[in-house]
Each structure stands twice: as C-alpha cells, then as structure tokens.
From TrEMBL:
UniProt feature coiled coil, ranges: none
InterPro entries: Aminotransferase_I/II_large, AON_synthase_class-II, PyrdxlP-dep_Trfase, PyrdxlP-dep_Trfase_major, PyrdxlP-dep_Trfase_small
Residue span, Aminotransferase class I/classII large domain: 74-421
GO molecular function: pyridoxal phosphate binding; transferase activity
Cofactor(s) essential for the protein: pyridoxal 5'-phosphate
Organism per entry: Fulvimarina manganoxydans
Name recorded for this polypeptide: Glycine C-acetyltransferase
UniProt entry keywords in alphabetical sequence: Transferase
Gene3D superfamilies documented for this protein: Aspartate Aminotransferase, domain 1 (3.90.1150.10), Type I PLP-dependent aspartate aminotransferase-like (Major domain) (3.40.640.10)
Length: 445
C-alpha cells in the first residue's frame, strides 16, 4: 500500500485533552462550548480527531467509515463491539423482523406501566437463569442499568467503594447517589479492604455498595470476584459487578468471569449490557431477591421513567441468547478466542505491548498522546478502523488503541490489523520527527 504524505499537524492538535473543557468559563451556557469546538476543530481539520465516525454498513468486519469532515475511507474494522458477530446473524435478524410483525416497532411505555411485552418477561427469566440468579430486570441500555442500579439503591448517607477504573455509567450513578465515594486502587483488594475498615469504623449503620467490573474495558483485566464478595459479606456491604464486556463472549459456556471464577449465583448484584455481545442496545440487573427487582423497577429512575426496550430489541437479544447458549455459540467463542490470541501474538512479534488478559478488547499501548494521535491519523490511510483511547478515559501518557475483535474476523483481517497498526505507527514516528526537525530549524533561523 502506498502512503501519500499528509499535511503538517499544528502543535495545538497534539496538545491538551477533553479534560481541559470540563470546567468552562463564561456565563453563557451555549457560547462556552465554543472553546471546546475550536480545539476540536484544529484536531478535526488536521486529521487527528478519530472520533464520531459512522460506518456505511454497520459493524461488518471490513467496512467503509466516514469521518465527521465527510471523508470516506475503507478498512478492516476493529472498532465495533459485536464480539460474537451476532448483529448480522441471519437468525437474529429474522427474529427482529418477526417481532415487528407481531408487536409493532415500539414498546410505548416504561416497564413500570405497560411497556413490557410477554417476550420481555421471558427474557428477564432467561437472563436470570443463565447467571443462576433468582431474578433479572431489563433496562433500556447498559448505561441506564449501571447508573440505575446504583442510584436506585444507594442513598446520600450511604457509601460507595468503587474500583478507580469503573465505567462512566457507574461513576455517574455513584455521584448522583451520594457524596460518600471512595475509589480503591484498580483491582487491589487490600486497598478496598482498608477503605471498608475506615468507613465501618466511622459509620457502623450506613449502607455500602462495592462496585467493580467483570472485565475492565480499557485494561482487559479482571478482579478477584470471590475475594470482593467475601469482603462485602465481612463488612455488611453489597457487591455489584458490571459484566458488560465478558458476559456472553468469555468462558466456555459464555457466563464470563463470574462463571470462570465459579461465582454464578453467588454475587449480590450483576449488571450487564446487551450492546457488546447480544447484538442490541439494552441492559439488565440480576439479583437473588424479588424485592430488589421490584424496588429497582419503581425507584431506579433510568428504568422507572424511561421507555422499555422495543419488541425488536427484545427479540434480537433473545435470539442472540439462544445462539450464545448453543453449540454454535461455543464455537463462536472459540473462534473469537483464536482471533484474540493470534492478534495479541502478532502485535507482540511486531514489538507492541498489549494490556491485560486475552479478551475481545485488545488494547495496544502507545503511551504518548502526540504519537497516538499521529498514529490515529495514519490509520485510515493504511486501511484500519480502530478506536483511539486517550486521557481522560485513561491516565495521561497511557494513550492506546482499543482493537475490538469479533468472531467473524478472518485470519487475513487479523494479520492486516496487526501489520497496519505497525505501519501507521512507523508513519507517525517519521512525521513527528519531521515536525520536530522543522521546529528546530525555525527556532535556530
Ligand atoms: C463497562 C461498561 N458498562 C456499561 C456500558 C454501557 O453500556 P451500553 O453501551 O449498553 O449503554 C459500557 C459501554 O460502553 C461499558 O463499557
């Protein structure tokens, strides 16, 4: 593949982060957004803003992608979270179409009123059974489930002890529920215990929720779930685990790290999303208590006051679940894992470090934001669609590419992804060196 030289990148595009615009100056709420827009536009115009892109085909393994300047490029797609490739499975699509014929396109009500259909009730039962829990309740999205389970159960006098890398939905729910939030060091049980000791000494009567994820979506690592549940028991706390990225696609039977760690049915609260493996928007919370399910339905605002999943979404998730629990699902998980291991090993052979344990998220270390942004700029030109992750989603200096692997990626596409990351990285290094040399020349002139 030949690569044409791209225009020079202004230094401003390589500096700053979205964090800089969280606190905004000025009294005009709308005008304040201009500061962010100006910075974003420098990046957009120089090709270093790899966000807000749209595919021409949905999450196919090779696809056309249009950036928000309107430019269309083609590439192998490692930026979609459709881990078992079920969103394009013929049986899943057929189920969604049939549901529209039977129930129409809309649920037209919240689950607290008459938004559920007979099929949503069955899906709740099946999700609970799959996790060996007593009950499950559906939410319109995974975000709504994460936010809602915390906001629904935790009150302002209670405490939340949360892994510092927990997803934004969980953190937003926590800050909406209470000011008493204690972040423990990522996957560090001792640090979690220290915080619980301090809280219980000070507040023997408060409620405490411990929050973590089954598989962390930036680092691809997992906590000791059994250890955290034991801590919850010891301190009269409640453990909540977000399984958005491992439920359905990891473990021999698809029950993710909760299953792998032999904790099915033993975790206080399990919250998940359908948007990574089940081919649809949607989320759920599973519990061993009917009382908790009923309480969430009427006190979790993102459930109570939001429209229920549509019949087509319910049918999509149910058909995806049929496959996930079948031999075909097991075969898709094996294919996915083969792809994951192959991609990690090819990247490593090319000198790249990948984070965490093998999962559908293969995070490739870049480090420096400027280098990562320049690499992101080169990626569309070498034919790879991948997501850049930078501060504040990860720590400063820990920029990375998050390659999301799908079961339907072919060996050739896996090889192309590894090679193209390398190619883009070399281009970026060369361009940065040229930029620096030009700067030095200017300064000494
Ligand atoms: C860990 C985690 N929890 C929750 C969510 C939210 O899920 P959804 O996209 O279904 O709203 C995500 C999605 O990005 C996630 O990564």
């Amino acid at each position: 593949m030949t690569f044409r030289t791209l225009p020079a990148v202004p230094q401003a595009a390589l500096e700053g982060s979205m964090r800089d615009f969280r606190v905004m100056e000025g009294i005009d709420l709308l005008e304040r957004c201009e500061h962010f827009f100006a910075w974003q536009d420098v990046r957009r115009q120089s090709g270093t803003w790899p966000f807000s892109r749209s595919t021409e085909t949905g999450p196919a393994s090779t696809c056309g992608v249009r950036d928000d300047t309107g430019t269309l490029t083609e590439g192998v797609n490692f930026a979609s979270q459709d881990y078992l490739s079920l969103s394009s499975h013929p049986a899943v699509a057929a189920a969604a179409k049939q549901a529209i014929d039977v129930f129409g396109v809309h649920s037209a009500g919240s689950p607290a009123l008459v938004g559920n259909t007979s099929t949503s009730v069955v899906l709740e039962r099946r999700i609970a059974d799959f996790l060996k829990m007593e009950e499950a309740i559906l939410f319109p999205t995974g975000w709504a489930a994460g936010f809602g389970v915390i906001k629904g159960l935790v009150r302002s006098e209670d405490f939340i002890v949360m892994d510092a890398l927990s997803h934004a939905s969980l953190q937003t729910g926590a800050y909406a529920a209470t000011r008493n939030i204690s972040l423990f060091r990522h996957n560090d049980l001792e640090n979690c215990r220290d915080r619980l000791v301090r809280i219980r000494n000070r507040s023997p009567k408060c409620g405490i929720m411990i929050v973590t994820e089954g598989l962390f979506s930036m680092d691809s690592d997992t906590p000791d779930i059994e250890g955290l549940q034991a801590l919850a028991k010891e301190f009269d706390a409640t453990l909540m685990v977000d399984v958005a990225h491992d439920f359905g696609c990891l473990g021999e039977d698809g029950t993710g790290h909760i299953g792998i760690q032999d904790m099915l049915g033993k975790v206080d609260l399990v919250m998940g999303s359908f948007s990574k493996t089940f081919g649809s928007n949607g989320g759920f919370v599973a519990t061993n208590s009917r009382a908790v399910k009923e309480y969430l339905r009427f006190y979790s605002p993102s459930c109570t006051f939001s429209n229920a999943l549509s019949p087509a979404q319910i049918a999509t998730v149910t058909a995806a679940l049929d496959i996930i629990q079948s031999d075909e699902g097991a075969e898709l998980r094996r294919k996915l894992m083969t792809n994951i291991l192959s991609l990690r090993s090819q990247l490593s052979d090319l000198g790249f470090e990948t984070y965490g344990e093998p999962s559908a998220i293969v995070s490739v270390k870049m480090g420096d934001e400027a280098l990562a942004r320049m690499t992101a700029r080169a990626l569309p030109h070498v034919g790879l669609v991948a997501n850049l992750v930078e501060f504040p989603a990860v720590a400063k200096g820990s920029a990375r590419f998050r390659l999301q692997v799908m079961a339907n990626h072919t060996p050739e596409e896996i090889q192309a992804a590894a090679r193209r990351v390398h190619q883009a990285y070399l281009i970026a290094r060369r361009e940065l060196e040229t930029n620096e040399a030009a700067d030095e020349k200017r300064l000494s002139a």
